């Protein structure tokens, strides 16, 4: 879900957008979605005019151990301009960096700032069909995108998590995706998810695939779709959230 808990090279005290592009918000609600994921609902007047497309991510200021603000990037789960609210779903890493620690301890009333939403992958409304593939970190933007599709859209795909208690559904809408469980297997270059993708019964003509999550797994899925199934590369949209040794590179 785009959890940037490792500062990028040259980040110093953490990247910052110009103050004019950072929006004041406060935490309106907190709940645990799964044992390893927490949802934080943010509110503030600026969120009523903020605009973003499904699957977007945005920078969030979190305090570091020395009290200085750091920027971390998270995927948007839901956004309601009419209510001036925005929900993030954040993976809780143990041990974690500043973002994970902040999410794990945040309470109602806490104040922070967010930046402008951006997208690396977006829905293709004219696609013959849509294929969503990812593990739990990628599932946040993927399911937000899934919820934005009309009921008549042709949809398939598969998501992966460690076990049944890690599953969650799209925020709304009729579409559902199956989950597979890797158990104690590594999520890096996941063979479990790749095997599930190979089992997908896809039409002979390519659609549009949205692949998000761990870097090596994303690469393996791209090789499968573009190599074994001969899809054109432009039909496979990828968004890498993390890689081995780095908990966030979105």
From TrEMBL:
GO terms for molecular function: oxidoreductase activity. PROSITE patterns: FAD_FR. It holds the Pfam family SIP. InterPro entries: FAD-bd_FR_type, FNR_nucleotide-bd, Riboflavin_synthase-like_b-brl, SIP_FAD-bd, SIP_fam, SIP_rossman_dom. Residues 20-124 form the FAD-binding FR-type domain. PANTHER family: FERRIC REDUCTASE, NADPH-DEPENDENT, NADPH-DEPENDENT FERRIC-CHELATE REDUCTASE. This is Siderophore-interacting protein. It comes from Streptomyces pacificus. The lineage of its organism: Bacteria, Bacillati, Actinomycetota, Actinomycetes, Kitasatosporales.
């Amino acid at each position: 879900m785009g959890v940037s808990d490792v500062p990028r090279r040259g980040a110093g005290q953490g990247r910052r957008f110009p103050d004019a592009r950072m929006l004041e918000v406060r935490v309106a609600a907190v709940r645990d979605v799964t044992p390893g994921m927490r949802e934080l609902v943010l509110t503030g007047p600026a969120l009523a005019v903020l605009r973003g497309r499904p699957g977007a991510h945005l920078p969030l200021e979190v305090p570091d151990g020395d009290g200085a603000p750091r920027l971390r990037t998270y995927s948007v789960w839901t956004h309601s301009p009419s209510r001036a609210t925005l929900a993030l779903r954040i993976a809780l890493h143990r041990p974690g960096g500043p973002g994970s620690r902040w999410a794990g301890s945040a309470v109602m009333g806490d104040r922070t700032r967010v930046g402008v939403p951006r997208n690396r992958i977006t829905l293709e409304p004219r696609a013959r069909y849509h294929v969503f593939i990812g593990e739990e970190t990628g599932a946040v933007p993927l399911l937000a995108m899934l919820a934005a599709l009309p009921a008549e859209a042709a949809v398939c795909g598969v998501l992966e998590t460690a076990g049944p208690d890690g599953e969650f559904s799209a925020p709304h809408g009729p579409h559902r995706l199956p989950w597979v469980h890797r158990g104690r297997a590594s999520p890096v270059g996941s063979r479990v998810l790749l095997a599930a993708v190979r089992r997908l019964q896809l039409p002979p003509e390519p659609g549009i695939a949205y692949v998000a999550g761990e870097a090596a797994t994303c690469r393996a899925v791209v090789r499968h779709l573009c190599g074994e199934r001969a899809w054109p590369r432009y039909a496979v949209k990828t968004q890498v959230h993390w890689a081995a040794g780095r908990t966030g590179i979105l």
